[in-house]
Design brief:
By secondary structure, this protein is of the alpha/beta class. It has seven helices and nine strands; from the N terminus they run H-H-H-E-E-H-E-H-E-H-E-E-H-E-E-E. It is globular, with a radius of gyration of 17 Å.
Length: 229
């Protein structure tokens, strides 16, 4: 790491982001707030976008994909109720930013990205930042990561038409799964809890994610269906 990175010019901007965009909107878990204050979000976007990295919106990360809005990252992370002991699965590594936040809050993080170039750059930045508890794999996340299951928490950061069955199967008893479910334009952030009495659902609000493409998500060829076909 270079000295300019060690001297983090964005520390104050990041603290302001957490206060204005996240705490003030109701995210209160102190561990989550601390993680978002710590992780250098700008290092997960292309350098020409550093100045925008702490804005209240998603940003492009290449390959037509995006890093989520900070508030959405905080909301989804809080919904997983992490204490530090958990084994977590993430689908949609993208930039690696959400994985880093999870890496601060859980014991081990397994994250799957279908696009090799994104997985590789995420792996690089996570390694450079010293996260040894985050494991990146290239593949179809809708199949889960059976060898490492069960997971105490599963986070899906792409929009899906339904809850992929393998993920429910790979969720531990009392585990939490958070996933945006809906059509290609808007989804409902859905939390599924696996209890001894069965699956319990609750809904955390509306959101808009890029598509989860895979065996249990959208089909590869299924293009955005615009108004004009
Ligand atoms: N969590 C990311 C943002 C995710 S954007 C971050 O913090 O930056 C959604 C990502 O999901 C994209 O990178 C996309 O390529 C990936 N994706 C879509 N379908 C997938 C699948 N079936 N398995 C794994 N990754 C998938």
């Amino acid at each position: 790491m270079t000295s300019s990175e060690q001297h983090d010019a964005y520390q104050k901007v990041r603290a302001d982001m957490v206060e204005a965009q996240i705490r003030r909107r109701g995210v209160s878990d102190p561990r989550v707030l601390r993680a978002l204050t710590k992780v250098p979000r700008h290092l997960f976007v292309p350098s020409h976008l550093w100045e925008q990295a702490y804005g209240d919106h998603p940003l492009p990360i290449g390959e037509d994909q995006t890093i989520s809005q900070p508030y959405i990252v905080a909301l989804m992370t809080e919904a997983l109720d992490l204490t530090g002991a958990e084994k977590v699965l993430e689908l949609g590594t993208g930039s690696g930013y959400q994985a880093a936040v999870l890496g601060e809050l859980a014991r081990e993080v397994y994250t799957i990205e279908r696009l090799a170039s994104l997985a590789e750059s995420a792996r690089l930045v996570l390694e450079r930042l010293g996260y040894t508890n985050i494991h990146v794999r290239i593949g179809d996340g809708t199949l889960g990561w059976p060898e490492e299951s069960p997971f105490d928490a599963i986070l899906v950061t792409a929009g899906s038409p339904q809850v992929p069955r393998p993920l429910v199967e790979q969720l531990a008893l009392n585990g939490r799964l958070v996933i945006p479910v809906g059509d290609q334009y808007s989804q409902t952030l859905t939390r599924v809890r696996k209890t001894a009495a069965g699956l319990q659902h609750d809904y955390l609000g509306g959101c808009r994610f890029v598509r989860l493409v895979g065996a249990h998500g959208w089909q590869e060829g299924e293009q955005r269906k615009g108004f004009f076909g």
